[in-house]
Specification:
The protein is an alpha+beta fold. It folds into two domains: 129 residues, no CATH class; 177 residues, no CATH class. It has nine helices and twelve strands. The chain has a five-stranded mixed beta barrel with strand order 1-2-3-6-5. Strands 7-8-10-11 form a four-stranded mixed β-sheet. Strands 9-12 form a two-stranded antiparallel ribbon.
Length: 321
């Protein structure tokens, strides 16, 4: 929504700092603005306060408080003070991500929030843009996670479990049930594990082993799966979570680059198996000075399970016929 509004705004005809062509957003007195550099900004009308908030300047994000600025709306030019969150990158993909994420993050912001509230809400955006990923070939891990969601019978329930653990230890977690996703195009079930992934006290802890294969013509990319999932009618907080997880992984990789890596969705549906972690033997590490252990395990030599829990999010996951 914000991107469409921003794209329709004119660039100011003056190169003055803090002059913005704007339009109101969220049905409140907050605004989206465009400056002479064609940079997007969100302008928040905040409560007057004597509290001092420090500005934040990062690689892509600039947050400033109580800034005198000129805003235009139609033919009117107004002098107002706003708290301004700006995307200062010239990269089109980063601008797009900024507008998409801000659209979900701030959609429920109050009519007159405090500057402290704006700062607190903005922290998640600051963290996201600090850690935007470089391109990763194929994004096969993310593809596997999105496949698990898209192939399920209740995508919203599975989305709620996606990276839901307080310490983000599991790909999916809810109500003491966890799933680790392993996806490969190698043709076998030899997956790389970190040692802690196979050491668990959770009874309902499983590995989803997904085999797929490259399919350039009719395959699906991570972008295709993301778009399919985000079309679901969902709570704005859940949509915000999905956006942030997705963009934290793909970063500012251009869409055309993401679409270079497409995989066979139907083949994956026929070749997904689940394994219970407690039934997978693992190494015993008795030396606490040894950490970050990784190894490859061939799950084709292990026994898969025929059923998951009946009353939890795992009950909606796809099983091959």
């Amino acid at each position: 929504m914000l991107k469409k509004i921003f794209d329709n705004l004119d660039v100011p005809d003056s190169e003055k700092e803090d002059l913005y062509v704007t339009e109101k957003i969220f049905k409140k007195d907050h605004r989206i603005g465009k400056n002479f550099k064609d940079q997007p900004s969100l302008l928040f009308k905040t409560k007057k306060s004597r509290a001092i908030n420090n500005n934040y300047l990062g690689k892509n994000i600039y947050l400033r408080f109580d800034i005198p600025c000129k805003i235009t709306e139609g033919k009117n030019i107004l002098d107002e003070n706003y708290t301004i969150l700006s995307c200062i990158s010239e990269d089109k993909e980063i601008k797009k991500i900024f507008l998409e994420v801000c659209g979900t993050t701030f959609s429920n912001i109050g009519n007159e929030p405090s500057n402290t509230e704006i700062r607190n809400v903005t922290e998640s955006i600051i963290d996201l843009f600090k850690n935007l990923s470089d391109a990763k070939k194929g994004y096969i891990g993310l593809w596997g996670e999105l496949f698990l969601i898209a192939s399920s019978s209740n995508q919203l329930k599975v989305l709620e479990a996606w990276h839901n653990h307080a310490e983000d230890k599991y790909d999916f977690y809810d109500d003491n049930e966890a799933i680790e996703v392993k996806c490969t195009t190698s043709g076998d079930r030899k997956h790389q594990f970190r040692h802690h992934q196979l050491v668990s006290k959770i009874e309902g802890h499983y590995v989803a082993s997904i085999l797929t294969k490259p399919k350039s013509s009719k395959g699906l990319s991570v972008l295709d799966l993301y778009k399919r999932i985000i079309k679901n009618k969902m709570d704005i907080n859940l949509k915000d979570k999905v956006n942030k997880i997705y963009y934290k992984i793909v970063g500012n990789t251009p869409e055309e680059k993401l679409n270079e890596f497409k995989y066979d969705f139907d083949f994956a549906k026929k070749n997904i198996l689940y394994f219970k972690v407690s039934e997978i033997s693992t190494l015993k590490n008795k030396d606490q000075s040894i950490t970050d252990i990784e190894y490859k395990m061939d799950l084709s030599q292990k026994q898969s399970v025929d059923i998951l829990s009946k009353d939890k999010f795992t009950s909606y996951l796809h099983f091959p016929n």
